[in-house]
Write a structure and sequence with these properties.
14 helices, Serine Threonine Protein Phosphatase 5, Tetratricopeptide repeat, mainly alpha, 315 residues, 0% strand, globular
Length: 315
């Protein structure tokens, strides 16, 4: 009987110990998630500091380091929508600002090998951004991949969402569309552009001014970066750029840069090209105090593009 009591006590002790270990594990996981969520709020607020940085080298190094920290945090809280969207946004901004800039720099220097390397790198980073946004959006759309749905099915699914879902739709479409834009030889990617156009149309329907009227900027580039026989539409491109400039009051200089880089070149409109680049280069550095970094980058891009005018226009 004593043996039985001892065995019962040991059994209960082991079960209690197992429960304690389990509770401690659950508590540890919960504490990690709490820490990650508090840190996510901190990073969301702190990004204003990066957006006001004017030293481009410091900004590039700092943003890259913080991206890896955010990814490390995401491992401990993979279903954190706010964190996943923050990573998607920062990867998109980093790629547009720095990876694409290196690609353009190599193109200007006629370094073909380096240009192709930077192009593939920019494409991969944009797809990484898209996939982080996808961790939020695909769940909302109840699909595993947008490749498995038709354009009509996507349109129907988007109609079931509401304005609160604007961020995942925008960042998924922006990153995906940008990955295709940097590699226009990817025919499979080009075939998906109509789906991206549908998503951006939905963003505009909810809030056309969202993220510095980003959907209008995308449309300007989307229709202005291709010849008409390849689906380009100069009229729609120009209208989209002008709409973006109106909504942003011309304070986001990257719009005029892309206006010159796409529509003005494909339309062979030298006056348009000169006018937009002059607007960028003559604008005061603090035209948008909260977006000094973006505007400093636009000025660097515009200066390089201006020097290449002869490469784009037929006399």
């Amino acid at each position: 009987m004593l043996d039985n009591i001892c065995r019962l006590s040991i059994s209960r002790g082991l079960k209690s110990a197992a429960v304690i270990v389990m509770l401690l594990s659950v508590t540890a996981c919960s504490l990690k998630k709490m820490a990650v969520r508090q840190a996510t709020g901190f990073f969301t607020e702190s990004r204003k500091v990066f957006e006001q940085e004017t030293d481009l080298e410091l900004a590039e190094t700092s943003i890259a380091a913080n991206l890896k920290l955010l990814e490390a945090m995401q491992v401990h809280d993979p279903n954190n929508d706010e964190l996943n969207l923050l990573i998607a946004e920062i990867y998109s901004a980093y790629t547009l600002s720095f990876a694409e800039d290196k690609m353009e720099e190599a193109e200007a220097a006629k370094k073909d090998t380096e240009y192709n390397r930077q192009k593939l790198r920019a494409k991969a980073l944009y797809l990484r951004a898209r996939d982080f946004a996808g961790k939020v959006l695909l769940h909302k759309l109840d699909v595993k991949s947008l490749a498995e749905v038709s354009e009509q099915q996507l349109k129907d699914k988007l109609a079931k969402l509401d304005k609160d879902d604007i961020a995942p739709v925008f960042w998924y479409a922006f990153a995906w569309g940008s990955s295709i834009n940097v590699d226009r030889e990817d025919t499979e990617g080009l075939s998906e552009l109509p789906k991206i156009e549908l998503m951006m149309a939905q963003v505009k329907a909810w809030d056309e001014a969202y993220y510095f009227a980003g959907a209008w900027l995308f449309e300007g580039v989307y229709f202005g970066a291709r010849a008409e026989m390849m689906g380009g539409n100069p009229t729609r491109s120009k209208e989209a750029f002008e709409k973006n400039l109106k909504l942003t009051e011309g304070k986001m200089l990257i719009t005029q840069y892309f206006y010159a880089r796409t529509y003005c070149i494909f339309a062979q409109d030298k006056a348009c090209f000169d006018r937009n680049l002059k607007a960028v280069l003559d604008a005061p550095a603090d035209i948008h105090p909260g977006q000094k970094l973006a505007n400093a980058l636009a000025k660097r891009k515009a200066e390089r593009l201006k020097k290449r005018k002869a490469d784009f226009f037929v006399d």
